[in-house]
Specification:
The structure is a homooctamer.
Chain A: H1 3-14, H2 20-28, E1 33-34, E2 39-40, H3 44-48, E3 54-55, H4 61-73, E4 79-84, H5 86-95, E5 100-102, E6 107-111, E7 121-125, H6 131-143, E8 149-151, H7 159-163, H8 166-171, E9 174-179, H9 184-192, E10 197-201, H10 213-220, E11 227-229, H11 235-246
Parallel strand pairs in A: 3-4, 7-8, 7-9, 9-10, 10-11
Antiparallel strand pairs in A: 1-2, 4-6, 5-6
Helix pairs in contact in A: 4-5, 6-11
Chain lengths: ~250, ~250, ~250, ~250, ~250, ~250, ~250, ~250
């Protein structure tokens, strides 16, 4: 309930069009749907311009399908199911056949994708093993209206591979860097471009890579100023961060 | 050395204006100034639109002054000295009196600030003890051309303080959230606004706050999608991240 | 053996009703049953008003059944088997068919539940993935005589979902908050209500959520004063904590 | 603004006694005082029955004095300054001489203490080095209306010292256990009493005590069910937790 | 090669009975058997009075059998295979049928056990889930000549269970305490007895128990002086520690 | 109150020599002295054959002196003050001039030392920086009746220094190994001797030595079986552990 | 593109043999092959004298085969696939039958091994469980032209096993030490030889061995100067490190 | 005592030139000097070609001087005192004026430096704050006979600064990389050169840099194969590692 709606409500009370009891009730009612096991936040798209996505792990296929149904019943915006297992994918596609499945290890299903918006996004990843996270990010970006270019396998041990693609990185409006192990790629990219850089540490590596903690700490300690970081393996979160910063904001940003 | 310069160089070789030996040399020469103890990266502003700042700790006052001199001798852009102690401040202001000092615990000195650019930035901080970090961030933002509005002491234990200022947060083009202890403010702000949110964990708190590790982990694990995080107490880094995302899209990046 | 019993024993010795050797023996004998692999603490209910529960993991189905039998042979109070696997559930229900099974991932079996006692308890949980822990807590609360109301999926990324249910939280005599990821819900609830708040961090989330450590640390560092915390995923422990604080003040404790 | 106030407001609009513009304003206005560097939450006492306390570290003496002044200007309830250093104590006592100072290492200053309320509280501490935390807890409890009994130096290496005081622990309405090192006292107390037990790990010990982390983890992993834990050295938080649970059940909560 | 052997060698050289080349060789040769994949240390029993045990994990059944064969071919002392899986047990028993298998989760196979030596050992364990570690310890103790008494399920949440068995603990020549979760049992036992106490933290518990780290740290930080600790779940190591301290040392110890 | 005393008490009741009320009282009274800020455990020496030592840090000089007075007023056994600062040493020596001060960084003051008991103890330390911990251990051992031999600066980087002293290590009845950094000395000593080995990790080293955590973990993971470990820098604890294991077997324990 | 190639290019431009556009293009082109999912770095062998190896985990068998094909299509140098699972081995051997498979747990496949180069390498391992890592290291060394001698099962608990082989360690040009648990072997070897020592911590051990973290930290904190360390279980990395230091460097090293 | 000495000894026994008792003694005597508080390892230079250095922290100035005297009394090789404070420097220079002091924060004093040996070493450091560690490394290298070239302030945020110096790095016989924060420089250097790379993580940075742990973990997880790592801030250790690998292959080692 935003400012104009609040004013309309108060005006309605003054005019006698709205009963006081109802007014109290509406002032307390907020726009979500209670499914019993979950409260679907239809308001989120309005508030944050990001839809509420369904995170698969820990939910039954039936719960996934019910949540997707509820979200599709709402207006506008993409509907996303992330990290879905096979049974969840089957259940949601049976109920809503139009979903597009992407990725292999981190399956993402998308319905009603946003039309492409302006802004060049590049998803840079360090090694082949980082691909599942990069793919989740790219799929989420596409669904949110920002289909990215991809730069794959450009880890810093062979720096020329990245430098060869420098112009794409320099020209981007936003860059996502996906890297495990020591995560040094984020620092190098951050030093090459003026664009916002969102770094995604991955759990790739073994031993001292500590399931992604090492890459996470390294990215947070980067000597390249102005890099920001999301959680380990959180390709979806990076996509949302990019969406926040690329969304048109009218005069002040356009 | 950017693309046009490279082409000019090659054209110069073709035209015989540039000697081959010199060409090889220039292809290898890169734009930094070697002060012996440091290599000042004059190129950084061009590459990343962020100037190279001088980080005070571990440097002698004389080194700070020399670095500031070198940076001021370069063209354009603000010059910043961060986390300066008193002796460093004295030394740099003696050499270059025009610097403006901000902050108390995290002193920042700025010369040649950028003119204000479009884009509304809000720096939200959770408690009074988070102020030094928030102030470093605000001072750096101002020097970079993005003087922010401030929302102070709006921690989630008294949620209404933040909700009362909701419109400022909703209308912002970028929000920086500075919080220690459990860092929950970042999640709450992230759920209220569509703007990019850069979270800065602080080392405020004791015991289980683990010098900021707890706030850091909490912000990275936020249930509000699309929040990004910088290092603990890194107000300067958050300012740089905001600067990256507010720079105008279009020609300059294309 | 409490104070009156001790006096009775001493009186018995004085009166010659109790043989000195027997007195020495009884002064050393304490009320537990030794099953060989376990010592069942029949006294615990008297001492702590909480029954000794059987924790399933690491026990054979036969051991579970034997322990349940021993506890049911004692007087009064509910008998609980927690975190039971399927084979354990089969074994105990075969031996003692009256048990009621709750939960799916964290199965709890209860016999002889306590009658409902006064006091309104609310179990608030942040996301759907937190449900198994919330359900274990609710089932244990019910068995202990405090069947709770439930508030599900009210994470802070959509704050209005919680605010809409504010009165229930405000009116409660005790609130359990179950949340993983960054655990911010505990701080927000703590700022809204005067009731005791017991926070249960869950292992929900991945990467920087560190299997619940992040939520745990965040809840311990909460800026909302007077929140207390139990172990990760310890829904049963939270139920016991609530049971302790809701027991009537006065005679029974005096 | 609680339910009756909201209804009064709406009734006022209906009756024409309240101007619509004012109504919108008041619906947005929330009860806190903005001091520039801080927003004093006058509403907190109403919401949580706990006053907003001033946490000293990181604040100037002048800020402490201003905050205390603002809180004393509000109605009812104790006013507390915690972890104050000497300069802060001087400043606040000069401005408001009535404050009572307690403790040596963790100084607490209290004005307008609550009258003693029913309910027997015992603060149990393990060793002499745990006293500063126990004293902060006891002083805060006294200010909140729950002056506690004290049991000092009853660590488990000499169990008989605690067992000798068993009745006091058994008869309490709430027990706070303050212990560093391995924190085993919490488990032992938890097994002896039916009262709510709030455990406070302290940073007492060296080496493997890890500045209180060991005691914290041990208390969270206690085999005694229903113990709850607050942050390391957080005597004030434990006092607040006890205050929450001892407030009278009934009308005010019902 | 001990002192007398060295002297005999030198005497042999002097007497011309031993060729100089051979002398050099023997001075370099040391008493182990090289099986290619392993060097069996036949000397260890002499040096440390503890036999070299075969640790099963990571070895093939054939390697286990070969190592056991080699050890049985040596003189004196028990031969032990620890943490054996089923295939390993089959292989070694086929080759050497006399081995006695103990334990279920941590299988130990023993051949040629030492005859019982003087000294009363008690293995105290906190909960049923700690039994596998306690059993490995007891089986190893028995093989090393110190068959222990057992005290099972005497965790500190029901202190009277331990106190009832106090005399056994007080009278012991060595006590092993096996406990997971918060490991408080070690401190309590350490405060009750003058005997050496070897504490074995176990990985029992979940969440904040951190796979045994919590119990380990707690035991190391114990307020009961003179407790020593071995690694997590290391029942075998505790048995060896007890064997070291109980072995007859002639006059000075007897 | 031991078994014979309990029997005497019961006999006294039977004989009518002891009043029932008094009997109840004595059954509850336990032998400690309550100084207000501390409860001195006079019983500890009886129970554990180790006196209660006064740990200096966090206590005022006056408290230290009072505690020492109380302990000296008790019967028999040494009285120890550990980790005393200068002011504490002054205070206790003024009150009780007979105390002997040892050590520089970890000052230990001892009164009424035990006469030397049989049993050869060796304290082995790895480097010069480990000396303060080794000295605390040696001083405590001497006070407890076990003055040790010393082996200093025999770290494994120059193995021959240790091997040259092998016979002393082999012949010892107990060995304490004090080492920081990687703590490898404990493993090497453990492989050379049959005696009980108590390892003391020290906080010597920097960076990856993690203030002693590395040495601690390494000692706990030692490949030499039967080594036991005490807390970081806990020389006093190691001395107590040795005292436990050297006390004569037989009547006093039986 | 190395120095001579750059000069040739510039000369070609001067001579008019190379078109300016092409020159710009070639100055930007770098020598890698883009397979879509990966960029094969053919240049690495030139730059670092180490080939780019294919790391198996996270890659499909088809991807492994394609990468191996691409590498074999390049000139010179060995081609390696590390940590391959069975399906990957099948796929690559079907495509390129000449590969030699080594190891069991950490399978390594090598084609086109380098001819043996001068320099004596010894791989020393502590226990049988460390063999898989030692074998990966040895196999990689062999493929890189440095087939090592092997010293197996020479852990420090039986020091004489290592001392017996001292001459081999002393005479080596490089020593790799592979050890888990407390990793003390690295310190002991480092104190015996003047050769470069590369330490490989392994994840062997349980509990406090922390999956290799303990050995890692211990090796980094070694009191033997000049030891260097690679990641946990990283036998391949140690082989590469040895290859770097043994490769002929012309006059100065040869 | 090396092989020839051993043979000479045996020959002496055979020839009757050496008394058997003396032979036994000498076979046991090893070449170190016992100063009481330390055992100076004169043999180390022979065994490892690295002298025993005196590590300042925790030693008195007098101990430092005594150790330096003892080492200077030995034959050949440099004598080093590391991490010396001012008082230690004064004491050793008074006793032995010829020492050369280097560095400011990590003072190193060297006597009798080795003459320069063949082999080009480069010490690369990331930022100005890393200089103290780089300087300790360079000073130790110079004393050991390997005076290095220096590359200062070439962090990856301005990659061109390093690339401009590429040839020096490529041509080196050994490269030391000194970097704090995220330590990415090691990976980039490792990808550019075939030389051995020894990485030194520094404690430079704050917050998530975790006092050097982040750089350490990142370097250990580097995607550039064959990098080795020493402890945090351990410039001296890196110098020793380089010295080991640069010593001439051949006779001296064979």
């Amino acid at each position: 309930m935003d400012e104009p709606a609040l004013r309309a409500l108060v005006d309605g009370i003054v005019a006698g069009d709205i009963d006081p009891d109802e007014a109290v009730g509406r002032l307390r009612r907020l726009p979500f749907a209670d499914l019993g096991f979950a409260r679907v936040d239809h308001h989120r798209l309005l508030r944050t311009r990001l839809p509420e996505a369904v995170y698969g792990p820990g939910k039954t296929p039936a719960q996934c399908a019910a949540l997707v149904s509820e979200l599709l019943a709402g207006e506008g915006g993409p509907v996303l199911l992330t990290r879905a297992d096979e049974a969840q994918v089957d259940a949601v596609l049976t109920a809503h056949p139009g979903g597009v499945v992407t990725g292999d290890r981190h399956r993402l299903v998308a319905w009603r994708p946003s039309p492409p918006a302006p802004g060049a996004v590049v998803v840079v990843s360090a090694g082949t093993a980082d691909l599942p996270v990069a793919e989740e990010c790219a799929a989420a970006l596409a669904a949110l209206g920002h289909p990215p270019a991809r730069l794959t396998d450009v880890g810093v041990a062979g720096l020329h591979r990245l430098l060869a693609e420098g112009p794409a990185v320099v020209a981007a409006d936003a860059v996502v860097v996906v890297a495990g192990m020591e995560g040094a790629l984020a620092s190098v990219v951050g030093g090459l471009t003026a664009a916002p850089v969102v770094a995604v540490p991955t759990s790739v590596g073994y031993g001292a890579a500590l399931e992604g903690i090492t890459a996470l700490l390294a990215m947070l300690s980067s000597c390249a100023a102005g890099i920001t970081v999301v959680g380990i393996d959180n390709g979806y979160g990076a996509a949302c961060a990019v969406s926040r910063l690329l969304s048109p904001l009218g005069a002040s940003r356009g």
